[in-house]
């Protein structure tokens, strides 16, 4: 009788150990999948950060270029205004001296 109980207990323990091994294998598989997903997300994050940094650098360059162009346009506009004022003054002098 004792032999049967021991054998039954041993079979239960063996089944429990096999179930634990299956659970461990499933857990290891899930951990591997998580590692792969984490690796992929890290790569994606690195690429996103790189794109962000590149776009920030490009934006900085565009702002510098825009500032230069604005200064050039302001300088040209001042020149045009001064030319127009000089032309207007010359016309006024011409009209003042003209006989109508």
Overview of the structural elements:
It is a single chain. With 100 residues, the chain is mainly alpha-helical. The chain has one helix and no strands. The protein has one helix at residues 2-97. It is rod-shaped. It starts with a helix and ends with a helix. The model has no long low-confidence stretch (mean pLDDT 91).
Shape: rod-shaped
The helix-strand sequence is H
* Radius of gyration based on Cα positions: 42 Å
Number of strands: 0
Q: In terms of structural class, how would the helical and strand content be classed? A: mainly alpha
Number of alpha- plus pi-helical segments: 1
- How can the largest sheet be summarized? none
Mean pLDDT: 91
Helix coverage percent: over 70%
Distance between the termini: 143 Å
Identify low-pLDDT runs: none
Strand content: under 5%
What keyword list fits this structure?
1 helix; 100 residues; rod-shaped; mainly alpha; single chain
Short overview:
With 100 residues, this protein is mainly alpha-helical. Helix content is 96%, strand content 0%.
């Amino acid at each position: 009788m004792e032999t049967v109980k021991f054998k039954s207990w041993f079979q239960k323990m063996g089944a429990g150990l096999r179930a634990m091994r299956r659970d461990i294998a499933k857990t290891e598989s899930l951990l591997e999948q998580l590692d792969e997903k984490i690796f992929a997300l890290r790569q994606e994050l690195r690429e996103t950060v790189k794109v962000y940094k590149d776009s920030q650098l490009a934006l900085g360059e565009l702002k510098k270029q825009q500032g230069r162009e604005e200064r050039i346009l302001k300088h040209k506009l001042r020149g045009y205004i001064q030319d127009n004022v000089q032309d207007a003054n010359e016309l006024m002098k011409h009209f003042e001296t003209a006989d109508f």
